[in-house]
Amino acid sequence: MKCIKHIIGLIYDKGLYSIFIYFEVGLWTSACPAVQRGDTTTGGVCRWSHTDITVCSGGKEDAFKGKVDREIYLNLFFYIANVPFSLVYFCLFQTVEHGFPHQPSALAFDPKLQLMAIGTKSGAIKIYGAPGVEFTGLHKDTTAVTQMHFLPGQGRLLSLLDDNTIHLWELVAGPPREVGGVKREGMVCLQEVCSYSLPGRPGIESCSATRVTVLLLLRSCELLCVGTEGGGVYFLDLPRLSLKDGQTLLQDQVTQSLPEDYRCGKSLGPVESLQEHPQQPGKILIGYSRGLVVLWDLSTRHANHLFLGKQQLESLVWERSGNSFVSSHSDGGYSVWAVASGNPYTHQPVSSSIPYGPFPCKAINKILWRTAQSGSPVLLYSGGMPRASYGDRHCLTIQQDKEHVTLDFTSRVIDFFTTSVLSLLLVEFDDPSALVVLLEEELVVIDLQTPGWPSLPTPYLAPLHSSAITCSCHVSNVPPKLWERLVNAGKAQQGHWPICGGKNMAPLPKQQELLLTGHEDGTVRFWDASGVALTPIYKLSTASVFHTDCDPSDDPQDPSNDPDAQQEEEWPPFRKVGCFDPYSDDPRLGIQKISLCKYSNKLVVAGTAGQVIVLGLSDERSDHLVDVSVVDLLQDREGFTWKGHDRLEPRLKPAPFPPGFQPLVLVQCLPPASVTAVTLHAEWNLIAFGTSHGFGLFDYHRRNAVLARCTLHPNDSLAMEGPLSRVKSLKKSLRQSFRRIRKSRVSGKKRAISTPTSKEANAALAEQEEVAPVQRRIEPRSADDSLSGVVRCLCFADTFLRDGTHHGPTLWAGTNSGSVYAYALEVPGVGLGRVCERSGAGEGSACAEAVLGKEIQLMHRAPVVSICVLDGRGKPLPDPYEASRDLATAPDMTNAHSVLIASEEQLKVFSLPKVSAKTKFKLTAHEGCRVRKVAMVVFSSTAQEDYSEHTLVCLTNLGDMHLFSIPGLRPQVRYDCIRKEDISGIASCVFTKNGQGFYLISPSEYERFSLSAKVLTEPLCSIHLDRPDGPAAQPQANGTHKNQTSQAEGGSGYTHAHTHTHTHTHAHVCFVIFLIFFLPPRLSFLSSPLLFFSSCYFS
After folding, report:
1. Has residue 536 been placed in a domain?
2. Which of 111, 501, 771, 816 gets the highest tally of CB atoms within 10 A of its CB?
3. Phi, psi values for residue 967, rounded to 5°
4. For residues 1023-1031, average pLDDT
């Protein structure tokens, strides 16, 4: 109700026409026409149609033609944004998930379409093909996916959940659509069609007898065999998922055919494996847990052969000719059985083997037998390790003739399959080309055609969490030369990626983007984030700069140096495979901050033990000694003793460094506390870094420290203990807790009873009314709070600090206690506001200097999250080298500059050089949240190709995104992006400069989102399907059958199995908008009922 009153007031009273239209359901689109009018006597009307928005005011018409290039589902919602002269479009798209699926539980492969599916414990299904081809589906219930099977070539997938339900999914082609002005064929999305659950057996109270243990899809794709715990086998018609009457095979029927001495009154146990005969369709192998294997003829409903095994069965696999099959068992062995006509009983296998015996071994969970044209078959199996010696290993064995390799993984094997170059149905041999192994923490692919069976690099699904991610950094618009050098430095072994189904229809990226992730083991990984597939391109390790606790060269017990140990390790023939390694040799190596200059190829990484390393890019291998400089941030202050970890010891001898980024200088902070902020200005050859004790400035070109400033408060004892120290001040924590409780009680008594909504507070601020609205009372933070000296942010800027006529280099630092320090810098070679030529005489002997220019103390002492200097036009200053090389618009140095300081509680703009407050927005007082991340983002217009605006994006502790104009700090729009309970997701969020962002949704996955309506990175792909036309699924009486339909979402490749129903037409929406906005002022009281009616009607 208040929303509509606010609209009418804006239109009729203020003469400011500003409306934000937001389409919420389906693929979202938005438009924000804003027209400033001086005539306040006439009314205004907004007419909306499918292709454009027209704004009329005062009898004049201004047409805003913003084509809607996405399908719009009409669930209309209004949001008021006071944005004069703005053509910026905002929206929130959750576009794609990067990385490895969290907690995978099932695997499937379609050899015809060359697609792979991974199911997870949360009920998600993710289908992958060629790089960029991805589809995602989500079951309605959050239940683990236990098994999956493709219907080959049809684009259909069967999934079995832990709740004993079977689901059928389809890849559905959408209608053709226009992308970037080009009409493209229909995209494909994944949707659930129907589900089924087996009925319970009459007279049996427990439903465990019909609990599904194994699924077998026959090659005809018309029948699904379902094995259960009770030993029964049920048969379902496809694609109906309906139970075939009279076809169920119960365990009693099989028991009647057994010899009397084999029965012994014992149950056969659950059905463990079902396999179809490779040459005779309609005959299947049924393996029971007790060891019995039955060759069953579906046409005659008769057992052709019984294999009377006595060892507990785990899995079965046919040999391609169908003359024999292999069974694996719980004792770590496998047996080969001959299928011969004549005697209906086979008591003993042809051969049996326990590869890693004779001591007790673990079960072989799954076994594959693949024939090869070159000679001996390839045998692959998981498990089977000796219990006593290697029972904790996660292994998979490959055997062919005399070659024997035991792949040793660092996480549990979920499932595996092999791929072939040729179609399996057209050749006489299997000839496997690759082995794909799904592990609990990564995907490993082995090349079976190359001698030695090496592993292949993955173009996607790389484990982001191979070592825990500790920080991240995004670099947009990477220069081609830097990109080429990084790719060459990180070139891995080349090979053909075996999963290549589908067609990626996404347009080529207009620019190359890098995502840098810092890890706990001291590595920095470079990822290609330009498209849908997040591809690893280069890995940098900083451990070689130091002597670590587990340095191999210093370990006398290294087994590689002991020939006797090597002799003992020869069997089993282990080979370490995979890159997931959750254990760090030394936690002090962890990377905390990263800064990269893409123009000078300089990189700064800072770690947990106060180490700051400056690196340069080199194309050649180098052996050199790294220069070391020590910066004492305490500055001999008395009364402080460091109780935390020791510093890392640098190597004193030259060390080899591979091509890529190589260390130039190591700056060691003392005390060796974790680095909390770092920034690089390569044009001035300066780096700045901060810890919980202070901040420093270092000239890496001349190898000298320019500045060291201690920010500790006299009561900052906790800052001296370090992040790795186990000693914590319990007494101080209790004191602070009681102080907070006391403050909350006092402030609660003084707080007003009624508080207006955040929209009213924001509007009042935007209109700058004289009477300030009632706000939340914010208590100032105590000056002696622990860790008040932590440096939260650092910033270099060429601006006016001393006076309003001379500008020059400056350094800004913000702390946890709300203090901001601004230093004027004297940098050799930098004068008159630009960088002079480096060849000047005497430049090498000069040193940089820093002089304190300003010191600001925020009133409530809230931590300073970000500092940004704005030029005379209110735009952020360009990055180093961008202005001098004409890569960006030169900053305005004729008008006064300002500085935007974002604390956890408010945003505030100060004029320079006087540092007087110009405008502010109290986010905590208005919204009740705290700022966690801040970024300056450029939003491009979808209507005007060359129009863009800088916008301030704030992520709060509640997980919502607030967008503000700069420098006016007018609220634009707010989105709920991350769940407020997802603390790690909020802490890991990183923004790009063009309106996108990443945050961790699990330890191994990044969620990519976009706040811009123009810049999107989403899967756009298609697949050629060969699907027979079948009757639609109908509810069945036998068992529980559900038929679901799901609305495909354009062509994003991303859909959920939920139903969207939209029955309202464009005329309904236009009618309601017309009624609301055509009301004259005297009838504005009718707007509230209209809005109420429309909100109910369209929801």
Report:
1. yes
2. 816
3. -90, 5
4. 72
The residues near 867 (Cβ < 8 Å, ≥ 6 apart) are: 793, 794, 795, 812, 813, 814, 820, 899, 900, 901, 902
Cβ pair 781, 817 in contact under 8 A? yes
Q: How confident is the model at residue 1073 (pLDDT cuts 50, 70, 90)?
A: very low
Q: Is 685 within a domain? A: yes
| Residue 452 token pair | 């030695």
Amino acid letter for position 35: V
Map tokens 């299947």 to a residue: 284
What letter would DSSP give residue 208?
Answer: G
Distance separating alpha carbons of residues 883 and 742, to the nearest angstrom:
53
Query: Could you identify the residue written with the tokens 């006092």?
Result: 746
Asked if 307 and 293 touch (Cβ cutoff 8 Å), the reply is yes
The answer to whether residues 155 and 146 touch, using CB atoms and an 8 Å cutoff, is no
Q: Which residues contact 921 (CB under 8 A, 6 or more apart)?
A: 762, 765, 906, 907, 908, 964, 969, 971
Task: Tokens for 148, please give them.
Answer: 């999956």
* Cis check: omega of the bond before 967, within 30 degrees of 0: yes
Q: Residue 999's closest CA among 1013, 985, 1010, 1009?
A: 985
Count CB neighbours of 616 within 10 A: 14
Neighbours of 516 (CB within 10 A): 23
CA-CA distance, 65 to 51, in Å (whole number)? 8
State the chain's maximal CA–CA distance in angstroms.
106
Domain that holds residue 488: 480-547+585-710
> Residue 254: what are its φ and ψ, rounded to 5°?
-75, -40
For residue 8, give both structure tokens.
């009418």
**What are the pLDDT digits (tens) for 474-485?**
999 999 999 999
Q: Are 999 and 986 in contact (CB under 8 A)?
A: yes
Residue 456 lies in a domain: no
Quote the tokens at residue 213: 């243990």
Q: Which two tokens stand for residue 954?
A: 């704030």
496: in domain: yes
* DSSP codes joined into one string, 419-457: EESS-TTTSSS--EEEEEEEESS-EEEEESSSTT-PEEP
For 736-783, how does the pLDDT look when each residue is reduced to its tens digit (9 = 90+)?
Answer: 565 555 555 544 444 333 333 334 334 433 443 333 445 566 666 665
Taking alpha carbons only, the member of 173, 171, 166 closest to residue 237 is 166
Distance CA 1011, CA 1055 (A): 20
Indicate the pairing of strand 655-657 with strand 283-288: unpaired
pLDDT in tens, 83-137: 333 334 678 878 899 999 999 999 999 999 999 999 999 999 999 999 999 999 9
Helix (H, G, I), strand (E, B) or coil at 666: strand
Query: Which DSSP letter does residue 264 get?
Result: T
Token digits for 686? 């300066």
- The predicted model gives 48-61 an average pLDDT of 34
Helix (H) or strand (E) holding 95: strand 90-99
Cβ atoms within 10 Å of 582's Cβ, excluding its own: 15
pLDDT per residue as tens digits for the range 208-219: 888 999 999 999
Strand partners for 150: 157
Give the pLDDT confidence of 163-184 residue by residue, as tens digits: 999 999 999 877 776 544 456 5
- The two tokens of residue 168 are 């059928």
Mean pLDDT of the chain: 79
What six digits make up the tokens of 126?
């993710």
Burial class of residue 969 in the structure, from the number of CB atoms within 10 Å of its CB (0-12 exposed, 13-18 middle, 19+ buried)? buried
The CA-atom distances, in angstroms, between 636 and each of 98, 544, 639 are 47, 31, 9
Q: What is the DSSP string of 749-798?
A: HHS-S----HHHHHHHHHHT-SSPPP----PPPPTT-TTTT-EEEEEEEE
Cα separation of 96 and 531, whole Å?
Answer: 10
Number of domains in the chain: 1
The residue length of the chain stands at 1099
- The model's pLDDT over 287-343, given as tens digits with 9 standing for 90+, comes to 999 999 999 999 999 999 999 999 999 999 999 999 999 999 999 999 999 998 778
